[in-house]
UniProtKB/TrEMBL annotation:
SUPFAM superfamilies: Phosphofructokinase. Allosterically activated by ADP and other diphosphonucleosides, and allosterically inhibited by phosphoenolpyruvate. This is ATP-dependent 6-phosphofructokinase. Catalyzes the phosphorylation of D-fructose 6-phosphate to fructose 1,6-bisphosphate by ATP, the first committing step of glycolysis.
């Protein structure tokens, strides 16, 4: 049976990563497996920044945002000779397998390592919810709470001043955070990669909300990387009855204490990762599908097309 495993966090951090590290560590230790923390993602693997983790070291972290192991982006990890160094560092310490907590990029690294003889299991740690094989990623629920709390506050001030708040939401080409927040906040308009952005159409809709629907305020949620929200807010002021103000929520969305849902999801997924490694399985990632914790091949997870959210967009429109 496997004796030593490593755990790392990679890519953008996400609330709940600590709960996942804790679950992996405790479940493994309670099964007689030694656990090593690999610091700063694949960088620590290459540089040998690897330390044993004890039960106590993962105590008092379940409620903390960020990741106690640190995270990093290391583009050079795509180079096989760099990965060779990482494999050597693991072998030197007798680490046979690794749990990689991160997003799609981290999964590619995990797959490449598995192909080099180190069994890896991926856990979806990202606020973006952009891993298509899982219904939810660890961190999405917490980020959603953060967005909703911020937009609720913006609505208070917007309606006092007959304003339109344009809010830029993270998601890296995945509109889930924007759409879910739009429904939860009762926004007037959501713009994502899936809806597309026709500036004139949105301005016309805002004029209608003002003149015909007599709205006191309007909230427009826009996914990042679609348009310059400050410029767009200026156009709103110039061409509609609302004065426009833009807010970029930015990295605030990545922090904060994980919600209970994210903590439970991370714990369930962490357990599954260790169970798979104990069976000698690698190259797979853990998903939640219809509230069941399951595993799929990383290759498959990376190729599943993004599910259409058409029904939710339709619901959104029917709620305005
Ligand atoms: N094709 C790849 N092969 C090997 N490693 C990769 C590959 N793509 C990404 N990685 C590693 O995973 C890290 C995190 O990926 P990134 O896309 O930045 O974040 P995320 O995992 O959150 O999507 C990268 O910095 C790199 O070290
Ligand atoms: O922290 P950085 O490097 O500015 O990156 C910002 C990006 O990271 C994210 O917050 C999270 O993305 P990943 O989980 O894929 O790393 C995206 O929403 C955003 O586009
Ligand atoms: Mg990613």
């Amino acid at each position: 049976m496997i004796k030593r495993i490593g755990v790392l966090t990679s890519g953008g951090d996400a609330p709940g990563m600590n709960a996942a590290i804790r679950a992996v560590t405790r479940v493994a230790l309670n099964s007689g497996i030694e656990v090593f923390g690999i610091y700063d993602g694949y960088r620590g693997m290459v540089d040998g920044h690897i330390e044993p983790l004890t039960r106590k070291e993962v105590g008092e972290v379940i409620d903390r945002g960020g990741t106690v192991l640190g995270s990093a982006r290391l583009p050079e990890f795509k180079d096989p000779s760099v990965r060779e160094k990482a494999v050597e560092q693991l072998k030197k310490r007798g680490i046979e397998a690794v749990v990689v907590i991160g997003g799609d990029g981290s999964y590619r690294g995990a797959l490449a390592l598995t192909e080099m003889g180190i069994n890896c299991i991926g856990l979806p740690g990202t606020i973006d919810n952009d891993i298509t094989s899982t219904d939810y990623t660890i961190g999405f629920d917490t980020a959603l709470h953060t967005v909703v709390e911020a937009v609720d506050k913006l609505r208070d001030t917007s309606s006092s001043h007959h304003r339109c708040s344009v809010v830029e939401v993270m998601g890296n080409r995945c509109g889930d955070l924007t759409l879910w927040a739009g429904i939860a906040c009762g926004a007037e308009i959501v713009v994502t990669a899936q809806t597309g952005f026709d500036e004139e159409e949105v301005l016309e809709r805002l004029r209608e909300l003002d003149l015909v629907r007599k709205k006191r305020h309007a909230i427009v949620l826009i996914s990042e990387k679609i348009t310059d929200v400050h410029q767009f807010a200026r156009k709103i002021t110039q061409t509609t009855g609302f004065s426009g103000r833009a807010t970029i929520l930015g990295h605030i969305q990545r922090g904060g204490s994980p919600t209970p849902s994210d903590r439970v999801l991370a714990s369930r997924m962490g357990e599954k990762a260790v169970d798979l490694l104990m069976q000698g399985i690698g190259g797979r990632c853990v998903c939640i599908q219809q509230n069941e914790i399951v595993d799929v091949a990383i290759e498959e997870a990376l190729s599943v097309p993004r599910e259409s959210r058409k029904q939710l967009y339709n619901l959104f429109e029917r709620l305005v």
